[in-house]
Amino acid sequence: MFDLSLILKVDPINPSMEVIKKAAEIIKKSGTVAFPTETVYGLGANCFDKVAVLRVFEIKRRPPDNPLIVHISDLQQLDLLVEDDLTKAEPLIETFWPGPVTLIFKKKPQVPKQVTGGLETVAVRMPSHPVAKKLIEVSGVPIAAPSANLSGRPSPTSAQHVIDDLYGLVDAIIDGGETPLGLESTVIDLSRDEPTLLRPGPATVEEIRKVVPNLRIPDFLLGKSQPERPLSPGMMYRHYAPNKPIVLVIDENKLDAVLMEYPDAPIVCPEEMARNFYGRRLIIMGKLSEPYTIAQNLFKVLRSIDTVLADVAIVVGLPEKGILFSVMNRLRKAASRVIE
Ligand code: TXA
Ligand code: MG
Fold first, then answer.
1. What protein residues have CB closer than 5 angstroms to ion ligand 2?
2. Nearest CA to ligand 1 atom 18
3. Is beta strand 69-71 parallel, antiparallel or unpaired with respect to 121-125?
4. Residues with Cβ < 8 Å from 87, sequence gap 6 or more?
5. Model's pTM, two decimal places?
6. Cβ of 198 less than 6 Å from ligand 1
7. What pLDDT score was predicted for residue 208?
8. Does residue 209 share a domain with residue 253?
9. For 147, which DSSP code?
10. What are the pLDDT digits (tens) for 26-82?
11. Which domain holds residue 258?
C-alpha cells in the first residue's frame, strides 16, 4: 500500500468531476478513499471487494465483528444488497433519503460477510452530500464506509481530523470542508418484527415517530442496560473517547461538588451557561437555543479536549430531547465518569 495519502480539495456543493473521477478510479482499483458526507467523513471501499473491505478494517483497527454501513446513490443499488420486501421501509425511505438515516435489512447472499461483521443483515444509507453522491455514482458500486477515524476516536467532521488519524494509511482523502451535521446517521433496524432504533442521530426520535409511530427504543439507549451483541455490535465498544478523561455531569445539583473536586479542569458547556462558570477555562460547544450547533461542534470539541493542558475535562449534561438526545448518547459513551 501507499505511504502517502493523496489529498483532493473540492467544493462541497459543486465538486469538480476531475477530482471525483480520480477518487472513483481508486475505489474501482480496490483502494480506499476518505470522503465527506452530510454527517461525518467516511472511509470508503467497494462493498463487493473483500480485499478492499478488509483493508478498511485494518486501517481503522476496527474489530472484525463490527459491521460497516453501505452507501448507495440510487434505489436500484438497494436491490443489489437487500432481500426484504421494501414496503415496511417505504415511509422512512421517502422521508429521510437521501439523508442521515441508516436502515438495516436482511442481506442478499452476495453482500460479503466481511462487510456485515458476519451478520445476516446489512446497514444501508443514501447520503445527500454532493461529494458522497457523486463518488458512489461515478464509482458505479455501493461504497462500504465506516466513519474515517481510528477505532475508538471521535468521528471526523473535517479533513484535518481524517489526516490526524489516517494520513498515510488511506489512499486518498477528499477535503470537502466541515461536515454540515457533525453527528453520525440515525440507525434503525428494520430486520426485526418491530422497527428498532440502534443509534440516535441527526434525524430525531420525534421526527422518525411521525412516520414510524411504533419505533422501539431499546433500554440500552436510555442508559438502563448494556446492549447485546446480536442487536447492535457497534454499541458495545467504547467510543468517541478523547485520550483525556471526561466527567459528564447530568445532575446539576452535583455540579458544584465536581467543580471543587477538579479545580483546574476546563468546562465544556453551551454558550448560554458560560457566565455560570466565571474564572474557569471554558470550551463552548454551541448554543442551547440552536441545538444543531452543538451537534455540529461535538466531535471537534471532544478532539480539542486533548490539546488543553489539564488532566480531565468536565462536560455539562444537556436536556435529552430532540437532537440533544443524540448528542448525549455520544457524550455518555465518551465519558469515563457519568454523574447523575
Ligand atoms: O453517518 C454515518 O453513519 C457515517 C457516515 C460515514 O455514513 N458512518 C458511520 O459508520 O458512522 P460507523 O461504521 O462508524 O458506524 C456504523 C454503525 C456501527 O455502530 C455498527 O455496529 C452499526 O452501524 N451497524 C452496521 N451494520 C449493522 C448491522 N447489520 N446490524 C446492526 N448494526 C449495524
Ligand atoms: Mg464510527
1. 147
2. 234
3. parallel
4. none
5. 0.95
6. yes
7. 98
8. no
9. B
10. 999 999 999 999 999 999 999 999 999 999 999 999 999 999 999 999 999 999 999
11. 246-339
